Amino acid sequence: MLMLRKFVKCRPISRFGLINQRDLNVAIIGQSTFAAEVYKLLLKNGHRVVGVFTILDKGNRQDPLAVVASENNTPVFKIKSWRKGENALPEIVAQYKQVDAELNVLPFCSQFIPMEVIEHPKHKSICYHPSILPKHRGVSAINWTLINGDKEAGFSIFWADDGLDTGPILSQKSCPVLPDDTVDSLYNRFLYPEGIKSMAEAVDMVANGTAPVIPQSTEGSSFEPSVRKKALQKVDWSKSGVDIQNFIRGLDSSPGAWTIIDETEVKLYKSSIWKNESPTGDQVTVDTLQIPAIVHDKGLLITCNDGLKINIERLSVDGKMIAASNYGNADTAQETIDYTDQEKAYIPVVETIWKNILNMDISKDTHFFQSGAGSMDVVRLIEEIKDKLKLTLKNDDVYMSPVFSDFCNTLVKRSRGSTDDNIRVEYDPVVVEVNNMKLQFAKQLFINGQFVDSESGKTLECINPADESVICSIQCASEADVDQAVIAASRAFEGEWSEMSPRDRGAVMYKIADLLDKNREELATIESIDSGAVYTLALKTHIGMSIDVWKYFAGWADKIHGQTIPISHARPNRNLTFTKKEPFGVCGIITPWNYPLMMLSWKMAACLAAGNTVVMKPTEVSPLTALKFAELSVEAGFPAGVINILPGLGIEAGRAIAEHPDIRKVGFTGSTATGHAIMKASAESNLKKVSLELGGKSPLIILDDCDLDKSVRMSMGGVFFNKGENCIAAGRVFVESSIHDKFVDKVIEEVKKIKIGNPLERDTHHGPQNHKAHLEKLINYCNKAKNEGAELKIGGKRPDRPGYYFEPTVFTGVEDHMFIAQEESFGPIMAITKFSSSDLDAVIKRANSTDYGLSSGIFTKDISKALRFAEKIDAGTVFINTYNKTDVAAPFGGFKKSGFGKDLGEEALNEYLKTKCITVEY
């Protein structure tokens, strides 16, 4: 950015030689919104800006630095040039010296600054440069960072000397370059916000005498020419596909890479590497390439000479930005939208914003970019729309609607909660015809809004538990894939997701709820073939409760707030103390196989409502509804990177999530043993917050004054619901001795009526267990129970049919010392224990003797006994005269080895929020 000439070598400045002070007289030499933000932050930090030196007005438009300085009555000097030939202009240098600055700050400077100015202040001059010096010393540093395929980008703040960006280093910061980064995304995500903050920090260090002076090495140095020369902007199609992709994104959005398409000069924007099958569409000729490009519904697909395919989403033709998918189509008439009175009130506000940016009168045909606006003006426009109208737009909304009337239409559509029509994510689908419908779902990992193959290429087989057939093979995530997902989630959290208002985030969550509802039959069918869930139950519970939970937490998104707290005042002054609830950032979620979509929803909805982003690992044995959810999340309008879904093995992908230093919270549902491992990994990595919903051995007490028929029905539901694959299943049923035999007889009578069969058949009650290993565990569990003396009344074996079916099972005579009394089966096994009514406390003590404390229940007409039980039982959930009655508004979670933390209800939000306490003295 900075161009300096005829410098004298900067003498090393001892940090002990600088005065120790809190503020400085600063001159800012530069331009753009970046320099304006540095100006504002220096004032906020207590420094005095004694003069601003910037460029001449462009037509009627002042530079943003001049605007903000004028508003604060800071002297502004608009300099056409600082020198003539090789010599500094004496009148300009004299004008500069009059402000008597102690330090020059050059946050974004495109002019040649003479050494008389650079060395004049007491503390010399510090400069911002958008590269990790000494690499990319030239004016187009950001562009060349991307063009060269660097894996790391960043910026340097250095002391000006007589070279071109070669002075000693004061500070440097870096960030990873993501696969789809452009100049804009790098600038907006890191170089802009961190650069502004670091410039202010550098001034503070100079003021306090702590600014380092580190000689700049020449090793690895480079200097590339400005990309403003048109000859350097043309795509060289003889290069490799990767080099071409880096070149196009390295010039996006300024100045833009160009090529010839069908003998027309066209600029290319928003490129990405295409990993799916080639789509169908119209063919066009691209410059020297032998293979024609394809215009399709997602853009322009170009095949490079080495076979790599690059998709282009936007084109500039004759200065007009269009969707690449529309290339070759005749212009269509502008869409007509009927505005409400409230929407009509937006128009004068938007007109004022455009007028202030462009410094000209605005008409419906005013073109934002043809009127002189640049990429930083896009940032300013979006920020002012957000501040004044509380609406969040994307850069693309401006680029694709640069005419004022079109922009207003786009704004109104966004205010109505609409996203781009028919948004779909591309993938190579698995297509299955089952349940009288044609299912389609992805088989790849979902990272940064795209379905991609795993880094390792490993796959997992998805087995239909009803007939043991292979549904498909899916990609299996590795540690490297988790890293990529975390990078994407971090970027989304620092960018678009956090920039959206909570209400807008809630609107997207409502949209995913609507899409789940719209696709509920398809989702229930996928859940059935993938997990063995009975289709009718999947419709009502697996999918139905998922829809409810997204709606519930969508409503919470804009209702999260802190408190004002009265504290003792520091007399004679006063104090104000308040708290803020803030998201953690990137959260990891690991879910089990018994309710694949519902468990995803329980955790992810609360997590996103709190403002976090997610890297989620669904179970490897039932991941398909999670992948379908990923597809729908794109249609709902979640920004890329907010949701990342990585099927994989717990030992690799799960462990990588638990250990990752950039994940600040992990929510897990699963076994107690795995919960131990996750908690240990989380503690040893970065002490990330953990919430665990683990195993259970939930007691159910049946007293003799109960409604017997209801208690039988509810007890059976408590044990056999969802094939017993239910974390709060009534793992042990205590029945009062006076009704024990009658209770058992009724249970056995009802068990015989349970129809075992194909989960897709509407009259099936009991489907297959989730997977083969679990079926074998249940068989071994029953054998051990029989060997220890429990009496098998019915079931206990695998029926003679294909599939992972297990008969509903009832044991009686279960004693406290037996394995069946202590350990969870997670299957359709009822363990009945007889007890005497003489001592309720004794049976509560027996119920509490397990290591678990997830759920519990009691059936009695005596409210005193019921409330006594609720008080004494050591479990997170207590049911009285009901069971399995969960609701999205009621907190859910256990005690002891059943874990800690809550899903559902308001309390679930606290699992994904941190509390910040702020005290102000006045």
Q: Could you walk me through the main structural features you see in this protein, from its secondary elements to its overall organization?
A:
(6R)-10-formyltetrahydrofolate binds at residues 111-113, 165. It comes from Aphis craccivora. With 922 residues, this protein is α/β, with parallel strands linked by helices. The chain has 5 domains: 25-208, Formyl transferase, N-terminal domain (Rossmann fold), CATH 3.40.50.170; 230-326, Formyl transferase, C-terminal domain (Methionyl-tRNA Fmet Formyltransferase, Chain A, domain 2, Roll), CATH 3.10.25.10; 341-404, Orthogonal Bundle (Non-ribosomal Peptide Synthetase Peptidyl Carrier Protein, Chain A), CATH 1.10.1200; 430-550 and 575-586 and 609-693, Aldehyde Dehydrogenase, Chain A, domain 1 (3-Layer(aba) Sandwich), CATH 3.40.605.10; 699-893, Aldehyde Dehydrogenase, Chain A, domain 2 (3-Layer(aba) Sandwich). It contains 28 helices and 42 strands. Strands 4-3-2-7-9-10-11 form a 7-stranded mixed sheet. Strands 12, 13, 14, 15, 16, 17 and 18 form a 7-stranded antiparallel sheet that branches. Strands 34-35-36-33-32-38-39 form a 7-stranded mixed sheet, sandwiched between helices. A hairpin with a 2-residue loop joins strand 15 (293-296) and strand 16 (299-303). Helix 1 (32-44) packs parallel to helix 2. The model is unreliable at 1-21 (pLDDT under 50).
